[in-house]
Specification:
The protein has 10 helices and 15 strands. It has 2 domains: about 140 residues, Cytidine Deaminase, domain 2, CATH 3.40.140; about 190 residues, Dihydrofolate Reductase, subunit A, CATH 3.40.430.10. It is about 30% helix and about 25% strand. It has about 325 residues and is an alpha/beta fold. Strand 8, helix 8 and strand 9 form a beta-alpha-beta unit. The protein has an 8-stranded mixed sheet with strand order 10-9-8-11-6-12-15-14, sandwiched between helices. A 5-stranded mixed sheet has the order 2-1-3-4-5, sandwiched between helices. It is elongated and about 65 Å long. It holds the Pfam family RibD_C.
């Protein structure tokens, strides 16, 4: 099996861990035996097992790991924490070649490639690096900026409205779009809303549909100073709920860092979401646009700037998908970069 094909599989395996590995990264591993066949594979799933992807794959391969090649989406860690170092597990298994996509930027766990080479193992790096880095962008952002990665979810009309003039907003987008949102919820470590959203909409903020009843639901985080109803849906036992009783976004980030989350899915209203954009805290916009107009109503972006066309806030387009008539687009927010 070619290294690029095996890496594509390793990345797909890693993505199975989204929402399950924080504060650790997502990692997938594939072991190719001497005959060129896959003899073991695995991914990190901290919710259900402490073992790292490389160890899971080695255990699956058994004796077939000796003399084999392991393909990993992230450089194997060289750190002994709650689990042993993956580098040592690879050496002990008798693996002779390690192929990885992204170098580990975490100073605590870095140095895996160097240690493997010192042990006489052939190391190949950078295979499908961009693809693997995109999948792991939340954790990589946290290491780079010491804060979680924030994805802003918006469901709007073509003229940018998220609610009608009377405040009603259920439902703007169709069932296919709403089902897609549940996938993104499931892949996040926390779901963030403001106190006004809880008071007005009383959301449950738990992945629905096929994801209902899963273990390890995202943490529900409510930010703001308004008093919340004690019987609000977010206070049930379906998931942990944390209230950050402050409008200070630095306090919010500090609390999220304490919780150890990598990826925050922001379902807040225009006031909180726009403040986060202004504070350079939004990293990604996922917007679902329904083929409708509302005219009057609430717009999803609440700030009045820029004042001239040259001051536009530019974003980088990542992807667009049609969902039964709705249009889902993903953009990277540059945050002054």
């Amino acid at each position: 099996m070619e290294h690029t094909v095996a890496m594509q599989r390793a990345i797909a395996l890693a993505e199975k861990g989204l929402g399950k590995t924080a504060p650790n990264p997502i990692v997938g591993a594939v072991i190719i035996g001497a005959a060129g066949k896959v003899v073991g594979e695995g991914f990190h799933d901290r919710v259900n097992s402490p073992d790292h992807a490389e160890v899971v794959a080695i255990q699956a391969a058994g004796d077939k790991a000796k003399g084999a090649t392991i393909v990993v989406s992230l450089e194997p860690c060289n750190h002994t924490g709650n689990t042993g170092a993956c580098v040592q597990a690879i050496i002990d298994a008798g693996i002779t070649t390690v192929v990885f996509a992204v170098a580990d930027p975490n100073p605590v766990a870095a140095g895996g490639a160097r240690a493997l080479k010192a042990a006489g193992i052939n190391v190949i790096s950078g295979v499908l690096e961009a693809e693997a880095a995109f999948s792991n962008r939340a954790w990589l952002m946290k290491i780079k900026k010491n804060r979680p990665f924030f994805t802003w979810k918006v469901a709007a009309t073509l003229d940018g409205k998220v609610a009608a003039a009377d405040g009603t907003s259920k439902w703007i987008t169709n069932e296919v779009s709403r089902a897609d949102v549940q996938v993104l919820r499931r892949q996040a470590d926390a779901i963030l809303v403001g106190t006004n959203t809880v008071i007005v909409d009383n959301p449950h903020l738990i992945p629905r549909g096929e994801f209902a009843g899963y273990a390890g639901n995202p943490i529900r985080v409510v930010c703001g100073e308004q008093e919340l109803p004690k019987d609000a849906a977010v206070f049930d036992s379906a998931a942990q709920t944390v209230v950050v009783k402050s409008k200070d976004l630095d306090v919010l980030v500090e609390k999220l860092n304490e919780l150890g989350v990598n990826h925050v899915f922001v379902e807040a209203g225009p006031t909180l979401a726009s403040a986060m954009v202004d504070h350079c805290l939004m990293d990604e916009l996922v917007i679902y646009q329904a083929p409708t107009f509302l005219g009057t109503g609430k717009h999803y972006f609440a700030f009045d700037y820029p004042t001239t066309i040259t001051d536009q806030m530019r974003m980088d387009h990542i992807s667009t998908q049609v969902l039964d008539g709705d249009v889902k687009s993903i953009y990277r927010i540059r945050n002054g970069e």
